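User: For a reading group we're discussing how well predicted structures match intuition. Take Histocompatibility minor 13. Before you show the prediction, I'll give you the sequence so everyone sees exactly what went in.
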Amino acid sequence: MDSTLSEPHNGSGPAESPAAPSAANGTARPPSTPEGIALAYGSLLLMALLPIFFGALRSVRCARSKNASDMPETITSRDAARFPIIASCTLLGLYLFFKIFSQEYINLLLSMYFFVLGILALSHTISPIMNKFFPANFPNKQYQLLFTQGSGENKEEIVNYEFDSKDLVCLTLSSIIGVWYLLRKHWIANNLFGLAFSLNGVELLHLNNVSTGCILLGGLFVYDIFWVFGTNVMVTVAKSFEAPIKLVFPQDLLEKGLEADNFAMLGLGDVVIPGIFIALLLRFDISLKKNTHTYFYTSFVAYIFGLGLTIFIMHVFKHAQPALLYLVPACIGFPLLVALAKGEVTEMFSYEETNDKEKEPASECKEGTPISSSSSSSSTPSETEKKEQACDYAGRPSGG
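Assistant: Thanks. Here is the predicted 3D structure of Histocompatibility minor 13, as structure tokens, for the group to look at:
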């Protein structure tokens, strides 16, 4: 996943290779207007904030889900330590592929791959919104796509996807966007997929504790600096990679409208990586049961400050910037200062969350207090809801 904030480049779409300061025919590229620059960077900032904010909110519901198919993917400290190495190998591999093989054929394969992923991600993103528009008498049938390996006792589920008629409608709408992206590579279609990938990443990728988050952000802090300042690998891949792995916005939108082609771009890594840490802090806020979201809002403001500083420095020095260079210290430092001021550093770093709910009896709450089975048949819905609320979300400070 690319993680860099890059200068604008020319092209018919976000996937085009960057043009030099002078165009191929020798004519100079028209300078962007101050209004166009402000609109582009402001839009990139807004597009980065939306999936972080709503993805964090949805991550709370995802963590509380009792459906095994909706369980989030938990990142452990070992995963976090290995991630920069894996990301570096992947990035270098893509760079070599673009240097050795034809960029056209590579991007054709990648476009098909992200076409499928983008449709699924966008469908999952818009599903809660679309459900509000369906009439009450909508014929909503249930479906299940099951793919197994082996037979009998050795049967193993490979794919177990449950969906309904409403999901099919969302998939159809997402497919229309996917075809538009596949045929035109339009920057709006690119951004719709990019926003969906980002929101799904923040919602479904969960850090198990704050220490793991610090390890992940610290490792990618070094990774980002090396691959942006040390080499031209990341910027080259970001501008050559024909896939919605970045958010883009044209600086010449006011002059050319929707056909604008002078893009500034922000890698999805700069959204998802800090985003999953911010979402973790929201779940930590909830575990404190103080009805405040202090750490979430602090880290959210820290992200705005860090990305704004990145944009400012990039604009001043006219060079692509490793956004995590500014985002990591801000997103970790600001909440840590708040924890120090409130005397909650121990609670913050002892907070642990798990999603392994299969090991828990269905009649027990997370705190270990059993619910009386004798009352289950006579409980009213309101009483049941109260009992489920008593079985609070898995994450909580140890000893709390």
